[in-house]
Amino acid sequence: MASTRRPNLAVDPKQLTRQIEIQRETLQNSLNQYNQKFGDYPLKLINPVEEIKLTEKKYEYVESPEHYIQDDGRQTWEHMVDKWGEEKTALWCEMTAYKYKDRIGRKPGEDVEREQGKIDWYENRAKELRAIAKKNKFW
Fold it and tell me: Most exposed: 34, 47, 120, 133, by fewest CB within 10 Å?
């Protein structure tokens, strides 16, 4: 019968960090030796974490978040204008801004500056939509 015991995967972070540092030093020494021997094409050791940060696409959370872009390239709020009009969508924007104001700084892992950016975005969108609605009523 196979053992159902799970291995203990608990690792001391300091110990793991030291092991990684030792391996990195070993690799760096090997690269240095290689570069001394074959200096025409020097190699360098990259930090994979830094490499990921450099290639990582910064996600736009405020102006045009991808999770709100629909198949036609428009955002959800634009579809809401089509369905309910500028006035009702402006009210929704004002209520959403209020929601963000009411909880700012209390959502775990959420940056306060990003939260403020969302508040500003929704308030500005509401003003723009109300101006459009007012202009449409005039004509």
Answer: 47
Instruction: Enumerate the β-bridge partners of residue 69.
Output: 75
| CB-CB contact of 95 with 63 (8 Å) | no
What is the widest separation between alpha-carbon atoms in the chain?
Answer: 82
Same domain, 70 and 134: yes
* Tally of CB atoms within 10 A around 1: 3
| Whether residue 75 sits in one domain with residue 49 | no
How crowded is the C-beta side of 120, counted as CA atoms within 13 Å? 9
Give tens-digit pLDDT for 1-34. 555 555 555 667 777 778 888 888 888 888 778 7
Query: Does residue 117 sit in the same domain as residue 91?
Result: yes
CA dist., res. 85 & res. 129, Å (int): 9
| Digit-coded pLDDT (tens) for 66-87 | 888 888 889 899 999 999 999 9
